[in-house]
Structure to design on (85 residues):
């Protein structure tokens, strides 16, 4: 089951960056901790107001954000398609 419902984006919280349940812990903060080698258990101990599903939500959100097509257009193709560069 998706945990994305836990991710909130509100202009008045953390400058509109994605947070977990509005508790001012950004998705990026959780990802940075995981990337630095922190375990889920360590994160939950250091941030007792977070829940296991919050960490899953951050990972799921990041996975969805990185899943988009990247189109490579050369200068010649761009010129011929748009007529300008």
């Amino acid at each position: 089951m998706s945990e994305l419902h836990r991710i909130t984006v509100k202009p008045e919280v953390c400058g509109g960056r994605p947070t977990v349940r509005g508790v001012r812990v950004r998705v990026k903060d959780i990802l940075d901790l995981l990337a630095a080698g922190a375990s889920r258990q360590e994160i939950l101990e250091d941030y007792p107001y977070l829940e296991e599903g919050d960490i899953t939500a951050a990972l799921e959100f990041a996975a969805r954000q990185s899943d988009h097509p990247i189109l490579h257009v050369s200068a010649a193709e761009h010129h011929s398609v748009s007529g300008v560069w």
The mean pLDDT is 87. The two ends are 46 Å apart (CA to CA).
